Amino acid sequence: MSLRGWVIGAIAVTWMSVPASALRLDPHHSWCSITTGDKAGSLRLRMGDEGCESDQHCGNFSNDDMASRITGMTLADLARDGAQLTAEMKAEAGTFTCAGTVHGGALEGKATFTPNEAFVGRMGQLGFSGLDTDKLEAYTLFDIKTSWVESLKNAKVSGLTIDNLIALKIFRVDAGYVAAITALGYETPDADKLVGMKVQGVNAEEVRQIRALGLQPSMDELIQMRIFHVTPDFVRTMQARGFHDLTIARLVQIKIFKIDE
């Protein structure tokens, strides 16, 4: 499962409205494997039931920060066949460990996640309930902190939920990104809109260039423009070819029907 798969899986789950105090926060145990990641210097974590053999039944996690966050092992340790290691990843939401033996470039063994009840209490003070062990484990992997959540609330981001916080973190939405968008005169996007904008790569600098060319796209149009690769250079090219009174809709049509070719 890719990072995008983590997002889809997290958002697809419907959580019952249960007081945080009523949820059991027992440690969670599973099988784990840590190998080198696709990027140089990165690590890849796989988790699942004992004997998990394929990605179809395993959860996959890898990002640029993982190697720096894990203690108890290094990338070099994965070359030490037979080494007994306990890799640990601490976060505000809890502590994850993968303890086992290195074989064939992989540390394989038993994963244990211990949730942090104090974190649940702090999230409750921020208005979030329903956090259970599985959700807290995801928060630990993605290093979701209450300070970051509070910064989004202070930025007046609406629609925040315990699910879309994961998506917001994966796509690196922060208060600075929100401020860059609102500084352009847009209303503060809600949480799901921010995810959509970040997924498509909407950024303030490109918006400024688009506006300098005489266009005033809405937030939905900014997303649409990124989807269809309507860039400032593309707009300039169309203007140079004599296209007048261009609108966002017209530019998108030109891209879809390849009128520019």
Outline of the structure:
This protein is α+β, with helices and mostly antiparallel strands and 261 residues long. The protein has 12 helices and 7 strands.
What kind of assembly state do the chains in view correspond to?
single chain
| SSE series | HEEEHEEEEHHHHHHHHHH
Q: What portion of the residues fall into strands of 2 or more residues? A: 15-25%
**Helix content range:** 25-40%
Radius of gyration over all CA atoms, rounded: 22 Å
SS field, number of helical segments: 12
Biggest β-sheet strands, sense, barrel: 7 strands, antiparallel
Q: Describe the global form.
A: elongated
Task: List the uncertain runs.
Answer: 1-22
Number of strands: 7
Average pLDDT metric: 90
With strands numbered from the N-terminus, the spatial order across the biggest sheet is: 3-2-1-7-6-5-4
User: What is the CA-CA span between the terminal residues?
Assistant: 38 Å
Indicate the structural class: alpha+beta
